[in-house]
Design brief:
This protein is mainly α. The chain has one domain. Helix 3 packs antiparallel against helix 5. It starts with a helix and ends in a 6-residue tail after the last helix. The protein binds zinc ion.
Length: 98
């Protein structure tokens, strides 16, 4: 089974509300094989998505032993989402301020 098939096979599992999106402040329950909910994953730059995908090892969410490189990529992804969300907030600030 390819890695993509594995993650797809896991996608319908584990929606027990215990594993949630890793983005700051997001509590959306997702399958353990996923790092973030689709809305936040889309905000992760493609380069970081690629790194996470490469470093992801099928089963790491079960034995809780991701590599240090994966954790670094994960932190980069979380920081990128926080930054993107911060910029969105800033854009919405000048409402009515002319
Ligand atoms: Zn999320």
């Amino acid at each position: 089974m390819s890695k993509a098939d594995y993650v797809r096979s896991q996608a319908g599992l584990g929606h027990n509300g215990k594993h949630t999106c890793h983005a700051d402040g997001c509590t959306k329950p997702i399958a353990p094989a996923y790092l973030m909910c689709p809305a936040h994953w889309r905000m992760v730059p493609a380069e970081i998505q690629r790194r996470i995908w490469l470093l992801y090892r099928p089963g790491q969410e079960v034995d809780k032993r991701p590599t240090g490189q994966y954790i670094t990529a994960m932190k980069d992804a979380i920081a990128a989402v926080a930054k993107a969300e911060g910029e969105q907030r800033q854009k919405s600030l000048p409402f009515g301020a002319r």
